[in-house]
Amino acid sequence: AQSVAQPEDQVNVAEGNPLTVKCTYSVSGNPYLFWYVQYPNRGLQFLLKYITGDNLVKGSYGFEAEFNKSQTSFHLKKPSALVSDSALYFCAVRPEYSNYQLIWGAGTKLIIKP
Amino acid sequence: EAGVVQSPRYKIIEKKQPVAFWCNPISGHNTLYWYRQNLGQGPELLIRYENEEAVDDSQLPKDRFSAERLKGVDSTLKIQPAELGDSAVYLCASSSGGIPPFFGQGTRLTVV
Questions:
Q1: Among the four residues A11, A90, B2, B72, which has the most C-beta atoms within 10 Å?
Q2: Are B68 and B76 in contact (CB under 8 A)?
Q3: What is the Cα–Cα distance from A12 to B103, expressed in whole angstroms?
Q4: Over the range B50-60, which residues count as b (16 or more CB within 10 Å of their CB) and which as e?
């Protein structure tokens, strides 16, 4: 079965330190990959996507993500965390055969401590 | 550009009562999605519309859930009757020409 895994329920990082939120997937073919962020009592906000090309993609709010095909991973990163980055982060994958289906991870709660 | 607008933001109802959610997608977006998100989980698709046609409703519990998108713009999602297990956040999203979808703020439903 196709799936997306976010192995960490929660990630704690000190402000100013680099952060990584992990995502791995099990989807056939060449999927599209996405990251969304959800702040408390807010909807999901699109951060960035990988479709093809450079393995390092840049998105909103200084976030970037690195695609690794051999490891089937798409980890979200930021060089210097802000307290305001504290939120819930979701990885999602679109299978190659579908224009619309998204397979979602369970989410990772990111806590940035001052 | 205005985003996806949903109302109400919060709703508390007693079980067995009906409830309806409304969504106004981003102008020009022909694809509209309704998702349900339980606490600590990713969203799960309930139904997808292409204009006014429901093209994927395989995950919609049709015994109690219904949806419509008249004129291919606004959409409503209804639950009748509501059950305790329906407590969740209901998210509407829209897109044009595929994904990624853009989400509204959601309606948090509490069934008591």
A1: A90
A2: yes
A3: 26
A4: eeeebebbeeb
Q: Is the pLDDT of residue A99 over 80?
A: no
> Do the chains contact at B99 and A105, CB–CB below 8 Å?
no
Kindly report, residue by residue over A43-85, the tens digit of the pLDDT: 899 999 999 889 999 999 999 999 999 999 999 999 999 999 9
Interface check for B100 against chain A (CB to CB < 8 A): the answer is: yes
Residues of A (51-80) whose Cβ lies below 8 Å from B: none
Query: How far B15 CA sits from the closest chain A CA (Å)?
Result: 23
CA distances from B74 to A5, A84, A106, A113, B104 (A): 34, 33, 29, 41, 13
CA distance B45 to chain A (A): 9
- Measured CA to CA, the distance from residue A22 to residue A92 in angstroms comes to 12
Amino acid at site A47: L
| Partner B contacted by A104 (CB < 8 A) | yes
